Amino acid sequence: MSEVQLREIELLGKSVEYEIRRSAEASEPRIDVDIHGVTVVVPHSIDTLPTELLKENASWVLEKQRMYQAYRDEAPKRTFEAGEEFPYLGETHELVIESRQSHTVSATDQYQTIRLRQSAVKQSSVKRALENFYRNQARQHFADRAEQYASQMGVEYTQIEIRNQRTRWGSCSPSGTLGLNWRLMMASPDVIDYIVVHELAHLREPNHTQAFWDLVSEYHPEYVEHAEWLKENSARLIFSKADL
Predict the structure, then answer these.
(1) Which pLDDT value is given to residue 5?
(2) pLDDT (tens digit, 9 = 90+) per residue, 122-165?
(3) What whole-number distance in Å separates Cα of residue 119 and Cα of residue 97?
(4) What is the mean pLDDT of residues 186-209?
(5) Residue 84: closest CA among 95, 73, 74
(6) What residues contact residue 157 under an 8 Å CB cut-off, 6+ apart?
(7) Backbone φ, ψ for residue 94 (5° rounding)
(8) Is 29 helix (H, G, I), strand (E, B) or coil?
(9) Calpha distance 241→244 (Å, rounded)
(10) What is the number of other CB atoms lying within 10 angstroms of the CB of residue 135?
(11) Residue 28 carries which DSSP code?
């Protein structure tokens, strides 16, 4: 269990709102900055002053805030209507809603489309049907890529969970569960492969040591390029304003 307290502090001349979350699960104090704000997580067992931690890391906190503000500013304006364009595996696809048996992707010489089942849209919404399409595609695509790379890397994972994090692309638990964000289906296959290799590498090297990055580089030599793409272009993978 954790308890949350709201505070405000001045960092390098700028007023910053933050939460204090005292947690029995945390082993050491840390600062989390995401698109929703700043949180200082403090273990119950450690007497730490959140203000000191924030001041010591003021530049980092402000830079993270600036990054997430830019992320919000660059977010695509989605209307979720037929004819709108959405990325799928790094390529632009026009959204089509029609009477059909299932959602699918199709391509011609002129353009590529995501075709949604009309009855599913009527039962829920375009947004929900499209998200379900991405999730279903992610489940198969991630499984295929993880199986291939796990075999090459000589590691075993237990399962893949399709996650819905707003700012995290992947995770790997000590038990071998890979958590992969379905929004990655809007990125290119190479970027997806980088995240899959990154998380599988944690099964051999838990921390981001040089040995870890050497392992990632062995199986995905272009990892720096694709990690940088995610850093600079993650706003392109925002699905809706609910992500903000």
Answers:
(1) 67
(2) 999 999 999 999 999 999 999 999 999 999 999 999 999 999 88
(3) 9
(4) 96
(5) 95
(6) 146, 150, 172, 176, 177, 178, 200, 203
(7) -85, 140
(8) coil
(9) 5
(10) 14
(11) S
| CATH number belonging to domain 85-243 | 3.30.2010.10
Q: In this predicted model, what pLDDT tens digit does every residue of 51-104 receive, in sequence order?
A: 999 999 999 999 989 888 887 888 888 999 999 999 999 999 999 999 999 999
Q: Cα–Cα distances in Å, from 150 out to 113, 147, 197?
A: 31, 5, 8
Tokens of residue 89, six digits: 């595996």
Classify the phi-psi angles of 147: left when phi > 0, otherwise alpha if psi is within -120 to 50, otherwise beta: alpha
Strand residue runs (E) in the chain: 2-11, 14-23, 30-34, 37-43, 85-88, 91-98, 104-107, 112-117, 159-163, 170-172, 177-181
The tokens describing 59, both together, are: 């530049």
HSE toward the beta carbon, residue 97, CA cutoff 13 A: 16
- Element containing residue 130 per DSSP (H, E): helix 126-153
Cβ pair 92, 101 in contact under 8 A? no
149 vs 225: CA distance, rounded Å: 19
Sequence ranges of the domains in the chain: 2-74, 85-243
**Nearest Cα to 192, choosing from 144, 154, 155?**
144
